[in-house]
Specification:
279 residues; 35% helix; 17% strand; alpha+beta
Amino acid sequence: MARVTRVARAQQRYATVPVIDPETNQPKKTPVMKGDKQKTTKTGRPVFMTVTVQDRTKPLAPYECDFCRKPIEVGTPYKHMSPKSGPYGGRKLTRHDGCPTWNVWEYSNSLSAQLARISHDFWEGLDGVESPDDIQSLLDDAASSIEEIAEQKRESAGNIEEGFGHATSASEELEEIADSLESWASEVESADIPDLPDVEERYFVTNGDGQPSPLFEPDGYDTEADAEHALMMHRDDENNEDDGLEIEAVTPEEPTAEQLDEWRSEVQDALSIIDESPV
């Protein structure tokens, strides 16, 4: 993973220009050293580096945050990284300090980065799901993404074999990776999803018209005794027995928010397969 560097205050940037050697009237150059010797090219020519300096008459625009696309103003904190490979290899990436840090798949095309993205998207999608069908849709999407990667590996293996005219250790390794990914995709797609919890009868304090009173728990009470206790405490406080409030038992059509939260936690434990890549 590329290293992220944080800067407390962004500085004004300026264009750089070569330093002119007064004796030659040419850009000044300094030897590039390797240890205690000057570095040379493959043909033996010595390597030099042009000396540059900031030109204060040529200010540059501030860096742009690649997350929110807004400029990183002078004096504000920011962070940057420079991936060595991948789609942004050799480029400097910058973001406001308050914007999210880069996920590995945002700057790398590696297999591990692609699989990390699939896992991240699945768990992100899990927030707010309310049915096993929603979960199955997420599993299907994850399995499809895994199969796409497997197909890419098979294509790469085929290209290698076509280039050499026969299978190689590299093509065979790619085929094995593809087989493992396809097997994993099948396991992800067919993973067992916990059933939704059974709805349970709830007890509501109503105004006598079937509508829950806003003075009491909007999701009702677990037991009739809990509802009666809440109503009794309310009447004691208000010193009013003839308030028209009643207790009604209702069987909800859907699980409560608390039950759904518990179910989602159960789903997270049951579907760890999404983080168990075989490669």
